[in-house]
């Protein structure tokens, strides 16, 4: 039964006035069956509590926009769902008409796979948060992002949760792809704290997935990647206590970058779990003003939950290199964990700078063996070659320690769908440029630095940093878990309704 009266706007849309073939063609949207599509979309719109946006609507451009401005993907419709009922209606619509459908939350898919060419099921408005103090758990809607999780859980409830560093990343994509985050050496990945998920399946059923209820689906949701098995409408996570950590950092002259890397990869992955996180960055950034030279930066930083004396002993090999600057500071949990670009003001209020979006193409690697000197030198040379260009942000590498001392590596590769459990560290090749004319050079650079690391990297890649240029993506993202994931897909989405270029396909 229709839930909304027929409006003049719907009549015009049904007649093709608002979404005519010419308008669709200008937006790059297939115009086949335009009038027929408009009529069927009007039917869907009346059934939604949320909002349906189509090409020709004034807000379509902003509704279709993605975090990665290199990409422009124009769906035939975007449904901003507000309830489980809305999600079920969108899935039913797509299933009955054979339209491509994708699930979307934070719009941070590196390759824009959350924007289907057909209809997008956007859950960003489903952002409730419910904290259970008796059990130390929190249940969150998929529309929450890193910022809202920080505000509601860490600041609001005084409990810890593994969270990303970019404030606008959606919790749904972060969790479903594994959830690498600050604190992973001490607490594991975000999927290791997932206790339950509520899901609308491609056949329209609304189900719970946990260790007791549909355990195979629950296994797949913990690292199998977003948009593969259904649309998640809530997650329940375990939370942690919030001890005040030491925050530390060091910067080095570029001439010492190789020594810094060698010392860091020896001490950080082998450190105890009290080294909650430790990252290394080597970047090239545009001049701060005028036409000066690009700036090369080398640094390490992290969080420590032991004593200061123990931390100083751990960092001694790096200190012996003579850093340009060094700091160790005891701070609050909230200060240590707040998202990048944000500050905590008086009264605990969080203020964040407006997001600046860049076109980008980033790739990733997991390393299971220490990098030899030749590899370190090659990596440094590649960072020095980042082309950037006018209006660019930065290029280089950010590397996060895991290693045998980490809680993440204590989990068996097959215990969850997140298979990357035997790694020393994870590397992302940063690459944010400015103008369209710089795209070709920067994309080529990303391919070059990735190719240069083939003799040293494991061949595994982080599924949350999804990469259209990755040929062996099935083994890179999922390794020995791929076949099991295909069986789960066959059980819950045998028609492959939720599909995209690097999506999991049904199999045996």
TrEMBL record:
Residues 71-242 form the FAD-binding PCMH-type domain. GO terms for molecular function: FAD binding; oxidoreductase activity. Pfam families: BBE (PF08031), FAD_binding_4 (PF01565). This is Unannotated protein. Keywords: FAD, Flavoprotein, Oxidoreductase. Signal peptide: none annotated. Belongs to the oxygen-dependent FAD-linked oxidoreductase family. Its cofactor is FAD. It comes from freshwater metagenome. InterPro entries: BBE, FAD-bd_PCMH, FAD-bd_PCMH-like_sf, FAD-bd_PCMH_sub2, FAD-linked_Oxase-like_C, FAD-linked_Oxidoreductase, Oxid_FAD_bind_N, TAT_signal. SUPFAM superfamilies: FAD-binding/transporter-associated domain-like, FAD-linked oxidases, C-terminal domain.
